[in-house]
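User: Second chain of the day. Same drill as before.
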Amino acid sequence: MRNAGKTILVVDDASEVREIIGDVLRILGYSYEEAANGAEAMSLIRGRRFDIVLCDIRMPGMGGLEVMAEARKIWADIPFILITGYDRDYSYDQVMAAGAQDFITKPFTYEELKTKLARILKERRLAGENLRLLDDQVRLNKKLSTVLSVAKDLSSEIDFDRLFPLIISKVTDVMQAERTSLYIIDQERGELWTKVAEKVDEIRLPLGHGISGLVAATGEVVNVRDAWELPYFDRTFDLKNNFRTRAVLCAPITNRSGERIAVIQVINKVGGGGFEQVDTDFLISIASSAGIALENAFLLDELEASFEGAMRTLAATVDAKHPLTAGHSQRVTEYALLIAEEMNLSESEQMVIKYAALLHDIGKIGIKDSVLLKDGPFAPEDRAEMDDHPAKTRSILEKFHFPKRLRQVPVVAAYHHEKVDGKGYPYGLTEESLPLGSRILAVADVFDALTSRRDYPKYLNAEMMGFEGMPPQRVIAILKADSGTHFDPTVVTAFLQCLPRALDRYRGSHFSDDYVDAMLIALGENPRGETDR
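Assistant: Same format as last time:
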């Protein structure tokens, strides 16, 4: 019957009235319970929730208005129809103002009671539906707000290394998943790879293999409650790591052209169960934002790779002019970056130092070969020309359009022969005027010059030091002795701290094993011990 499951409480001190109402309710298909007074009614109301209470307004002890007031303390929205045989004592407006849903006077007809009950139940049903719709709207608004927030976060990050874990953490959080993996599609190699998969190491797999591989190959979303039921699911990871993959939701990520560039996969919904359609819609929305962010990051990586390639090619022109010094700019760059890392410089500061180190000697392409390759001490006019190469470096580099974050590269590179006491060249700047990057380059540049072989002898204060790299003890002594005059003491200290790592990096290539061991001994290190601090 239409009204099955609806239970009415009939409260009246007159048994014949309760019987009449009960007959009507049975005919209409309602179940009901009876109470002869307010106390009995409250006892029943405390024990269960009724769909409607039909209550006499006048009863000995607790009247209908009091019953309604007390019942509302237990069930705030319980509907009441108050019944009276004395309509002159209670007006419709008074009863409704007290909170009743309706008012009926004795005697009443079958149709009258039927209509009032139907109306109130319909109002309650609509109110419930409206509440559910409101809750759905609130949840939808919350999800939309989350999608917009995630989109904003992703669009603000263009660094690939930071974007990867950002996507992972955001998706895991908003999807309420145990684990999320982000796979990049490599069409040329026909495989997927993930740089970040939460709680697991890097994974590589062929296109079409497993759930993520299938999504990458077909572009279709996969949503399954138990992955082990899929014939193409690979259980190897689960068995190896004592893990149980159940619910999996996997969606493709495309770029602006609609090309699939990645796959996002969430595993095991927190609390159990599977991912619903709303979760699928949500993940697809996030995947759209992730696609734009990843494409931007890929483009930036390509631009930076092209830029770095151009800078390294430019630096190689100096090596090509003087083959024996080949690798000098690269080694100076390595040393300078080790120092910068030791000094906890920011990523942007390290980028400036990197390119300044690579290009610090580019001005030498403007120096005559007769001077650049001279075998012996410089004549005054030769020294003047050689000392001008940092200014030439600056002049050349200032013609390049460096990105905003690299605008200081020409200046940092041009000051690498300046000294903190103001006796360097070509500008004679003191420590206060020298960028920290230039002070770092000064140490790195001199160290490589002292420790590298040349086809012309080294001279120190008119003393000829030979063609080979200086003895390690002498190199360390020079760095320490010139700390505070030529070099920034804090930079020298940082370099000596990270020098074992630099030596280990070039052991067996630029430096012989014996030379590295001797240098470590000069530093007070055990050459057979751990050199990586």
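The mean pLDDT is 86.

User: Great, on to the next one.
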